[in-house]
Design a protein that fits this description.
oxidoreductase activity, GFO_IDH_MocA-like_dom, NAD(P)-bd_dom_sf, Gfo/Idh/MocA-like_OxRdtase_N, alpha/beta, nucleotide binding, globular, Rossmann fold
Length: 344
């Protein structure tokens, strides 16, 4: 039995989810002769000890102690502002790193991190979990197989049921950086094309504190790709019907909708139509439960040398570049060109 030891930094909401998914990996990997062991740390020591005890994991008192304990990989699930420092620490330890998106608060802060990783030949996977969602995978396959023809329109939607705490929003970088960056990433990944221009508008009709924190609660971006194709990316913090993530791809031959199932958070106004009939998802964790598990399994496969990196830091920064442009357009009210090269 081969042990793979993962260290986890941060056991907030998403960190606990990753910890549970890491623990569950053994159900899949044990038959392959692989056992995954978890060690974790967090500045909220009492909470972290409780999480560790519940999962049969080891608690370590600091990041330094965690890295010195002999890890095969490091998982970073802390606040965005800490990502650059922790990525560098993992790279310096000579182990593969998984870090939740984004690499840094903005592209300017991310550039030196990319240089650091490249100079030291580090291996870093960034967490864009939609790349592992069955619907997005099928849409990408269908497009690449030519089943949709050429794409004439794309409509991406990400709607949270309720907003996160205002304290989080004040440091999130804005709705496009925090939320729509997932859509920007998946549009690039699915089409294989770059977004070269963004024109954004937003509104604030919910909690006034969101506006006071410098953010909007609802926004729409018109994006233009390098071949002239257009699309829209919309997001809101106030979708009372439930958590709603969809992508409509309309092609010259056929159209597909990702996220259209019995749990879709919408209703038909047409007489006699009862679809969708299920209970909508309430949070992103429910909507992408399977994708998050697959994402962490992919990280273990990356550690073992069984697969290529499914989301490089360069990929993530390219999506963040579009998000930065969208935030700039939102603030200025004019379209903003997006530099394609992650080195620019």
């Amino acid at each position: 039995m081969k042990d793979v030891i993962l260290g986890l930094v941060g056991v907030g909401r998403i960190g606990v989810m990753h910890a549970n998914n890491i623990a569950a990996l053994n159900e899949v990997l044990n038959p392959q002769g692989i056992r995954v062991r978890l060690r974790l740390t967090d500045v909220a020591e009492e909470h972290a000890r409780t999480v560790a005890a519940g999962l049969g994991a080891d608690f370590l008192p600091s990041v330094q102690a965690l890295l010195a304990s002999g890890l095969d990989g490091l998982v970073i699930a802390t606040g965005t502002g800490t990502h650059p420092e922790l990525i560098r620490a993992g790279v310096d330890a000579g182990i593969p790193v998984f870090c939740e998106k984004p690499v840094a608060l903005n592209v300017a802060d991310a550039r030196p991190v990319l240089d650091y990783i490249r100079d030291r030949q580090g291996v870093v996977q960034i967490g864009h979990q939609r790349r592992f969602d069955a619907g997005y995978l099928e849409a990408r396959r269908a497009y690449q197989a030519g089943e949709l023809g050429w794409i004439h329109s794309l409509r991406a939607v990400t709607c949270d049921m309720t907003p996160p705490p205002v304290e989080f929003l004040a440091s999130s970088g804005g709705l496009f950086r925090d939320c729509s960056v997932h859509d920007f990433d998946i549009l690039r990944w699915l089409t294989g094309r770059e977004i070269v221009e963004v024109y954004a508008k937003g509104s604030n009709n919910g909690d006034p504190a969101i506006g006071e924190a410098g953010d909007v609660d609802t926004a729409l971006a018109l994006v233009t790709f390098d071949d002239g194709t257009v699309g829209t990316v919309s997001a809101t913090r106030y979708n009372g019907a439930g958590h709603d993530v969809r992508l409509e791809i309309q092609g010259s031959r056929a159209s597909l909708m990702v996220g259209l199932d019995d749990k879709t958070a919408l209703a038909s106004a047409e007489s006699g139509v009862t679809f969708p009939a299920g209970q909508p998802h309430l949070t992103f964790a429910e909507r992408f439960e399977s994708a998050y598990r697959s994402e962490m399994a992919a990280f273990v496969e990356l550690i073992l040398g069984r697969r290529d990196n499914p989301c490089t830091p360069e990929d993530a920064v390219a999506a963040s570049r579009v998000a930065d442009a969208a935030q700039e357009s939102l603030a200025t009210g004019v379209p903003v060109r997006v530099a394609v090269s992650v080195a620019s």
